[in-house]
Amino acid sequence: MKKSVAISGNSGPKIRSDCEIVIELKSEGGIIIDLTSKVKVLYGESIKILISEILVFFKVQHAVVKVNDSGALPFVIAARMESAVKQLISTDLEYLPEFLPENSYSTTRNRFRFSRLYLPGNTPGLMINAGLHSADGIILDLEDSVAPEKKNEARILVRNALRQINFCGAERMVRINQGERGLEDLHFVIPHNVNLVLLPKCENADYIKLVEKEIAGIKSKLNLTKQVFLMPIIESALGIENSFEIVKGSENVVAVAIGLEDYTADLGVSRTIEGKESFYARTRLIVAAKAAGIQPIDSVFSDVADMEALKQNVMISKSLGFEGMGCIHPRQISVIRQGFAPDETDIEKSKKIVLAFETAKLNGLGVVALGSKMIDPPVVARAQRTIDLAVRLGLLSAKWIDETSPEEKEAKKETIRQ
Amino acid sequence: MKTVINAAGRSVPLEINGQSAIPFKGVGKHKPEGRKYSPPIPTCYDYPDDGNKVVSSLEEALRKCGLSDGMTISTHHHLRDGDLVSNKIFELASAMGVKDLIWFPSASFPCNDPLIKYLDNGTINRIEGSMNGPLGRYVSEGRMKGTAVLRSHGGRVQAIQDGEVKIDIAVLAAPTADSFGNAKGTCGSSACGVLGYAKADYMYASKVIVVTDNLVDLPCFPMEIEGNYVDCVVVVDKIGIPEKIVSGTTQITKSPDRLLIAELTASFLEKSGILKDGVTIQAGAGGTSLAIAVFVHQLLKNKGWKSKFGFGGSTKYMVKMLEEGQMGFILDAQVFDLDSVKSIENNPNHIPYSVFNAYNYHSKGNLTSMMDIMILGATEVDLNFNGNVVTHSDGYLLHGIGGWQNCLHARNVILPIPLFRDRIPVIVDEVTTLCGPGELIDVIITERGIAINPLRQDLIDSVKGSGLPMRTLMELKEEAEKICGIPQKPQFEEDIVAAIKWVDGTVIDVVRKIKTM
Asked: Chain A: nearest CA to B293, how far in angstroms?
């Protein structure tokens, strides 16, 4: 039996860009909208029109709708309305805001994943400008940052965000819940061009396979062709023991992350800044990832005010073999990116390889050799990625090949022959 | 009421509060002739030989100064939100049965909201100063008897010197004073640093009352208010609430978006070449401005450069530049935090500097036009770079002008502002209220891109190929509207509730009464 009053969303003095909606179903009297909004003068009429449209869409004819709005964007209001309506009536309908054409990009298996910014899945205010901070990936989180009673409304909000927010080229990621609920979450995100799904508290390959199957089912039903990558997060002793099996669980696994809060809790020890207690887990995971040819990603650093400690942490992380780290505040992004960015030695080496490749191409050679040493295509590709990244980070001029003198070019080839 | 279209295309009245008003003629076009207003001539024989002008209470002082109906009472705002004196004046006036006073503060704060009571009961006819929060709302809803007049800090001095505003009694709170009326702001439990905004008041008012909670032996030195202008001195328990006078510490913004704007601003200053050795800087005390100051400080340090001087409102971040050698002097018109109070008291290179030398239209030159970097805010900017600082897009009067209009005369006027606040777009087709003409606003920096005024081809050229996200205002506006939706316009009645003065005393725009639904 469905109830007759439903509430969804958030309001209060500290809430911004969100709204709280209370719908009471009635048997007569039509639709009554009671709107309180800090933007009423500017958007009052359009908010009322949107709400009426949504009620018509879900065939609700008699209801009192109370809206307490603190500047929510239309896709947020729509998500709050839909999750309130769905507490009152049974329906398979989805009120989908327009899918922005600029959101239809895909990402590649080997792209850099230095920084990925976590955004709580039920807090719209943090999502709107998230793409401006140049993170490699943006994670809309349905798991730990969403309170249990808010899980359903977060799914709808995240779905709408995937359609309406331009994340400016960041890899579009969602962290689903564990277990059965996580499989249900997939239905809200896979149809809306999510590039990568994070699977929390992974402990074995079976779950990866379940997720794969669910995704394949959704894709085939909707004729979706774009690849959806997976990033399991290992957060327990059992997960660490099974890490190689997990990362080999699907060819769509492109990276694996470690979650140290839960891992240290599982071990019954405290998490320290030096991280001795998790050294084994981290290196074990790195080895598993490298053996499987995917990217190992480090846990988040939780003191958002201490940039110096973060920098130190990134240095250790990189030296162990990690290729990225989670961020919980946009300020961490540039520190992490600079930390994982190629240093001068990386760049010089990559320049040599790329130069050798370019020369081979000019000479019509299919195989690149430096002296007696053959260079594999992935090595060239990786060197080119390092160069691209160095250019992207402003460490190297985009026209560096033209700016390299012929003598320098010769010298570089010489040094690599040795 | 008869209105005309002024040079900025705005419909303005020819008369405000029964006084004739001159419509805005264009930047630098209005040049009044004649002589400055002068206060009545006093005679020293009318004052005590022993120099002791202390009277028993503020009420007695007001009576002695002849408080009566229709008078103009001025106050300064150096005690900011901790001011306990301004409200007291009108409480006493109300009890004395005085009506129709004009309050002429250099700015008002939320602590002045209780004055609504005295606007309601007829003690105060109108406020000529800034209108914030509930006071702004009160005025916007057409509830104030007279018409509000908003002026810049410099425009306030101009209005006094033109005789447009004749101050009958200036009531000047002073953190430290002697019995002769010499006063300063650097010490005492209500220390506020400087008292520069009171200068025009004590020089031009008919009567001057100094109110202090820290009476010291003569001479109170170095005096910022000179006792020879003062009629009475009143000693009270407390003139202010210290923690509300200056913030214990000013805070850099924590908002990732504002930090991004600050970072972009610093990057723009660097890449455009505006930031250079010897640069002169003015930034405010808002969270974004403070972050810009920190980024600029780092840039100066990295390059081994030094700013010749900075103009305050000073904050600890500016003080840090001074102390660490990246700034030669701080010239200061107001002080925002405790570190700055300490600095101005102890550091000889941190110098009080009044609005006379910085902002005044009738000065023989001003500091603002010498500033290389001027960081300002705005509630709205339109496609012609016109700025609004007094009303929000919903039409309500919510801020004062401060020194904003005066500061527009700097070499490079840069407005780092978010593209939208919550859902409210900041870049609009036409500003709700015009406060500053677009020809004086050079650069708008938002989290989604930077727009340079087409009049500044030199700046446009300077950042070509810099990799900075350059956009037009139209592109930025369209991006905001794509995200937020196109807003409706607020609805106004015909009634004028406030006049906005330009720095020269002409009327640049008016605010009309909000149509309540």
From this structure: 17
CA of A328: which chain B residue's CA is closest?
B256
**A 359-418 residues with CB below 8 A of B?**
394
Contact assignment for A42 to B424 by CB distance below 8 Å: yes
SS (H, E, C) chain A: CCCCEEEEECCCCCCCCCEEEEEEECCCCCEEEEEEECCHHHHHHHHHHHHHHHHHHCCCCCEEEEEEECCCCHHHHHHHHHHHHHHHCCCCCCCCCCCCHHHCCCCCCCCCCCEEEEEECCCHHHHCCHHHHCCCEEEEECCCCCCHHHHHHHHHHHHHHHHHCCCCCCEEEEECCCHHHHHHHHHHHHHHCCCEEEECCCCCHHHHHHHHHHHHHHHHHHCCCCCCEEEEEECCHHHHHCHHHHHCCCCCECEEEECHHHHHHHHCCCCCCCCHHHHHHHHHHHHHHHHHCCEEEECCCCCCCCHHHHHHHHHHHHHHCCCCEEECCCHHHHHHHHHHCCCHHHHHHHHHHHHHHHHHHHCCCCCEEECCEEECHHHHHHHHHHHHHHHHCCCCCCCHHHHCCHHHHHHHHHHHHC
CA distance to partner chain A, nearest, from residue B236 (Å) = 37
Mean pLDDT of B14-18: 97
* Chain A from 342 to 361: CB within 8 A of any B CB: none
User: From the first residue on, what is the mean pLDDT of each consecutive set of 10 residues in chain A (418 residues)?
Assistant: 86 94 96 95 96 97 97 98 96 96 94 94 96 96 96 98 97 97 98 98 96 97 96 97 97 97 95 91 97 95 90 93 94 92 86 84 73 77 84 82 76 54
CA distance readout (Å), A8 to A81, A146, B214, B280: 7, 13, 56, 52
Contact B485/A at CB under 8 A: yes
pLDDT at site B281 = 96
Contact A41 B488 (CB under 8 A): yes
CA distance A285 to chain B (A): 32
Contact check, Cβ <8 Å, A132/B422: no
| Residues of chain A found within 8 Å of residue B422, distances taken between Cβ atoms | 16-17, 38-39, 70-71
**What are B399-447's pLDDT values in tens digits?**
999 999 999 999 999 999 999 998 999 999 999 999 999 999 999 999 9
Report chain B residues whose CB lies below 8 A from the CB of A16. 422
For residue A330, the distance in angstroms to the closest alpha carbon of chain B comes to 6
Measured between beta carbons, which residues in chain A are less than 8 angstroms from residue B465?
none
